[in-house]
Q: What sequence folds into this?
């Protein structure tokens, strides 16, 4: 028997080692993978489950951190669950187009996937609104209105359509050409009659489910336009300098819900302004986790506001769906 040198022995072991490493290597999943694998009903269901887990102390969210570096900004947000999965999302504010990535981990396997997360972020943000509408908005066919037809608007109206039928649906945006194209596209995609409105007031007149999806620094929805018992999802203003609703709307609401209370204290400038003048207390603002778990329910006849900020817990839930389906279907590129 000829003795093997350490180098030769290592060389014989290498193929098996590489195969094992490739099996454990993380997946790289593209925007197309996300588009193909993640649908709105699945995202709403996953968010319902993860917020219930948070309410039970089995999941946690860390608010977004915005770090400034010589004219650029790095945004990082993270979340984890007792299941052993955790994730962070990172994106930068630079002169280049913004690119989002979610890094999904497992405490046993390590890094599971790097996921391009532009589409994922829009879907999970819409799903949070869909979850809030499902739990808190009037039942039956609703009169739906949305102010804004930008990059987040498609998944907002898709989420509403996933949990409610529309007696009527209207959208308003300042750019009339863009507005009409948006309504035509969404009418075709959702198979609903979605009509452009001539003004913001005309859009929300008579509506009982309203979404604001703008990046406006000043209110786009007047309090006097709202009817009794309306549900409002304000999802565009996630920075201290932005506000889509008037202060008196928050002050008279029967219920205010947000996806993360700690993050709201940092980013919900419209609520913070009401608190600062003594017109509202943070204790009045409730977490979406309490709504998902059934501790807090709809307020018939009262005004309900869902203040959406976009939480990493939502990214985690959506990323798990994308990764698990990709792994089962053999999709994605292995990073070795």
A:
């Amino acid at each position: 028997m000829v003795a093997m040198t350490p180098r030769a022995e290592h060389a014989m072991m290498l193929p098996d080692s590489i195969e094992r490493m490739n099996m454990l290597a993380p997946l790289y999943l593209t925007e197309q993978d996300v588009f193909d694998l993640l649908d709105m009903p699945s995202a709403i269901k996953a968010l319902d489950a993860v917020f219930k887990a948070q309410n039970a102390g089995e999941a946690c969210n860390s608010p977004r951190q915005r770090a400034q570096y010589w004219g650029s900004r790095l945004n990082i947000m993270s979340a984890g669950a007792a299941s052993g999965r955790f994730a962070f999302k990172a994106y930068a504010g630079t002169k280049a187009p913004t690119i989002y990535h979610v890094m999904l981990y497992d405490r046993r396997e390590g890094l599971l996937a790097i996921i391009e997360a532009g589409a994922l972020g829009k879907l999970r943000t819409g799903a949070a609104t869909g979850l809030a509408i499902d739990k808190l908005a009037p039942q039956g066919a609703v009169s739906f209105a949305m102010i804004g037809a930008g990059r987040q608007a498609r998944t907002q109206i898709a989420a509403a359509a996933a949990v409610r039928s529309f007696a009527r649906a209207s959208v308003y945006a300042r750019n009339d050409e863009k507005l009409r194209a948006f309504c035509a596209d969404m009418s075709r995609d959702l198979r609903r009659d979605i009509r452009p409105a001539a003004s913001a007031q005309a859009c929300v007149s008579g509506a009982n489910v309203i979404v604001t999806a703008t990046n406006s620094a000043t209110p786009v929805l007047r309090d006097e336009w709202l009817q009794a018992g309306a549900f409002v999802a304000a999802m565009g203003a996630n920075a201290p300098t932005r506000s889509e609703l008037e202060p008196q709307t928050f002050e008279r609401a029967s219920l205010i819900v947000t996806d993360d209370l700690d993050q709201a204290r940092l980013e919900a400038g419209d609520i913070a302004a009401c608190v600062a003048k003594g017109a509202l207390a943070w204790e009045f603002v409730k977490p979406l986790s309490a709504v998902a778990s059934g501790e807090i329910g709809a307020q018939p006849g009262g005004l309900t506001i869902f203040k959406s900020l976009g939480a990493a817990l939502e990214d985690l839930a959506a990323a798990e769906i994308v990764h698990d389906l990709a792994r089962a279907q053999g999709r994605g590129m292995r990073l070795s």
Q: What stands out?
A: The radius of gyration is 22 Å. The chain has a mean pLDDT of 93. The chain has two domains: 26-120+314-334, 126-310. The CA atoms of residues 136 and 188 lie 27 Å apart.
